[in-house]
Amino acid sequence: MANTFLCLDFGAFAVKAAEFEPNETGSLRLVNYALRPLGPDGFKEDERDELVTNIVKEMIEEAEFKATDINVCAPGFQVFSKFVKLPSVEASKVNQIIQFEAQQNVPFPLDEVVWDYQILGTTPNDELEILLVAIRSEVVESIFKIGSGAGLELQLVDVSSAALANSYRFNYGDTEGCVMLLDIGAKSCNLLFFEQGRIFSRGINIGANSITQDFAAESKLDWDEAER
Predict the structure, then answer these.
(1) Which of 107, 111, 83, 87 is nearest to 97 (CA)?
(2) What one-character DSSP code corresponds to residue 38?
(3) Span 32-48, pLDDT tens digits
(4) pTM
């Protein structure tokens, strides 16, 4: 199973892992998977790296994952993403214009983030639709640290909205009409619309954790009991 790879989703409240094996047709076969909740400690930034590293080590041992190459999905609350429209220009000028848009839109200095973009298509007015994403460099370094601490080799870091969009298009690329996906996380949510090859996405900075917190406070219950 030397050609398998591991995908890790570092959510705010849980770590999900899935091991895949590519086949000759270009599809993927799910070999193994595991899910482990982090509990309320997952929201404590100063303890999160050590907690996630230990959880990943335990998951690898218990689920007997064979792969050591990993692709990581960073949680939505740690990622900035925005859809921008650009005038149609020569291909040689696209990178220059996107660099300018990143400087205008990313809420941090560009030398403090890792950023990238994906061209999603064109509008009826021939404008380019761009998904612009950025992650603080310290978050990416933290992900590297977690992977290294668990003996894994990091191949790429993706953002949750883009990973969800790619997964949907890979599995349901021939779906017609307008489709909405709602991914409700613990700390944030992703809302995506797909129609005629176009994608619209919006991140919402509220998640299921808010419900648990309010319920625990109103009912005077501890976290675990309120979550159940």
Answers:
(1) 87
(2) -
(3) 999 998 877 777 777 78
(4) 0.76
Per-residue tokens: 8: 């890790």
Q: How far apart are CA 187 and CA 199, in angstroms?
A: 23
Evaluate whether 56 touches 150 at the Cβ level (below 8 Å).
yes
Extract the tokens encoding 39: 């509990």
102/7 Cα distance (integer angstroms): 28
Task: Please tell me the total number of residues recorded for the chain in this structure.
Answer: 228
Cα dihedral sign for 27, 13, 144, 33?
negative
Backbone φ, ψ for residue 160 (5° rounding): -60, -40
Query: Which residue in the block uniquely carries the two structure tokens 């000759």?
Result: 24
In angstroms, the CA 102 to CA 21 distance is: 36
Summarize pLDDT for 100-137 with one digit per residue, the tens: 888 888 888 888 998 888 887 777 778 888 888 888 89
**Whose CA is closest to 168, among 153, 183, 148?**
183
